[in-house]
From TrEMBL:
Name of the protein in question: Uncharacterized protein
UniProt-listed PROSITE patterns: PROKAR_LIPOPROTEIN
């Protein structure tokens, strides 16, 4: 609730994913050990989030693997540590769309949650006028995006993020 209050106070749009979203929005049950949050790119989105996370009650996790565009923080909540992953919004969308390349993921238990997550992050970027390079995606990211577009027939939505993207 602290993070929600701070982001709202500073007028930063956000979207919680995973276990937190399941608990607070009553979405499909998800098996996750962390909480993901997506915010708009730039100083007024991601910058504000990082400023909030770098002070109490948060402690940055420097022990685990940290990818180039994400930060991991621990939150002491009711005597238990919760992991919070803060991603650059486009980085989280790339991660989510990469998982869509896995056929068992697309048809498995996490399908509904992944659809909600991908649509929500995509909409957050579009509503904030953000762009995301799609044309140069490789590997699972390129394949997952193409599989998504083939299934949902929404190339025009993706082109709002990158007008040069024409598909696979």
């Amino acid at each position: 609730m602290y993070l929600h209050r701070e982001l709202s106070r500073q007028n930063v749009p956000y979207y919680f994913l995973g276990g937190f979203a399941c608990i607070n929005v009553a979405m499909t049950a998800r098996t996750t050990a962390d909480i993901d949050i997506a915010v708009p790119n730039g100083q007024n989105g991601y910058g504000v989030l990082l400023d909030i996370l770098q002070r109490a009650p948060f402690v940055q996790d420097t022990e685990g693997f940290i990818s180039r565009d994400s930060y991991y923080f621990l939150l002491n909540s009711q005597a238990a540590l919760s992991k919070l992953a803060a991603f650059w919004c486009a980085g989280l969308l790339k991660l989510k769309i990469s998982s869509w390349a896995n056929k068992s993921r697309r048809s498995g238990l996490k399908r509904d949650g992944d659809i909600i997550d991908i649509n929500s992050i995509q909409n957050l970027l579009i509503q904030n006028g953000e762009k995301m390079p799609l044309k140069g995606l490789e590997g699972d990211a390129a394949n997952g995006l193409w599989d998504w577009i083939q299934e949902f027939k929404d190339l025009k939505m993706w082109q709002l993020l990158d007008s040069s993207y024409k598909g696979h």
